[in-house]
Amino acid sequence: MTTTTPVAAGADLVLSIPSVAGVPAADVSAVVANVTVTQPSVGGHLTAYPDNGERLPTASNLNFTAGQTVANLVAVPVDGGGVVFHNGSRGTVHVLMDLQGFYGRAGSGFKPVSPERVLDTRSGLGTSSAGAIAAHGTLSLDLSGRVPADTTAVVLNLTVTRPTEHGYLTAYPDAGAMPGVSNLNFTAGETVANLAVVPVTDGKVDFYNGSGGTVQVVADLEGYFGSAAAGANQSYVPERPARLIDTRSDFGATGPVPAYGSISFYPLWHQDCSAGCPRLAGAVLNVTATQPQKNGFLTVYPNEQAVPNASNLNFTAGMTVPNLVSVADPGLMIGVYHHSSGSVQVIVDDEGYYIVPQS
After folding, report:
1. How many Cβ atoms are within 10 Å of 63's Cβ, its own excluded?
2. Residue 286 domain-assigned?
3. Final residue of a domain: which of 225, 254, 286?
4. Which domain holds residue 120?
């Protein structure tokens, strides 16, 4: 989907999901899509939520400034209907949506894992040698030793850094035709991250650098889909977006988060569920960093565990940056660690969760 005319200030754009090619007319609980905002006339935010007559949630999926192009992965409940995109700005904006997949009401075959860095072109991790991806070049990543043989798709948090020109990055199955879509967009010198669901061929994925300059790429594995993989039988339960944390107003946690500090919170599942509920296998959150004083990044992880060597979103001073995050086996509480020498405000919106169905 691409808007040919911009979405007006404060207006809604409604997309009928059953009309989208490849999505069944029934038995779909949520769609997963990479949503891109481009050519906004003023700063603001975009909110995606189900077209079922409910009121606009107090949550956001993308934040943008005037003229910025920004993308974020979203997982939106559909309830057999459509998706509403609300332009929460006082100006116009164009919206693009690239469908990544959908969840049925039966088990999704998804296995969330603790974040693991699998690619870093700066150091040569996951590649034959260190070095940036060349202009309009392609890099192949072999994950066959890290995911089961029956894996059909992987969930990667992708980060682009040190780009010498503006452009985009596309992730797609190895040796397949490159799709006419992007997973993240960047400008020269920018560090930007986005979660991606990428189909695999024999455990391999390719990355295309859609720019006229070089770019460094980092990838953290966060999960995989596979019908027979041990434990990969979780069901995804989409939820109406709900705000859990907003440190700007001290909602859920006191802000701002100090340099190299952290906050923790209970997932909505533990707030709503009593004894006897199915086991929580993963939490899906939209996390936003805003008003950072210095450059840095956030890492989201199970609070009972050590902070992993991975990042979920990167920011520069003064930027507002969102990203969808999947937290495997979160336990009782989820932590957000702030890697920078200045303070930052953090916003967390609940999007859904994975459960292990009871037998």
Report:
1. 23
2. yes
3. 225
4. 110-225
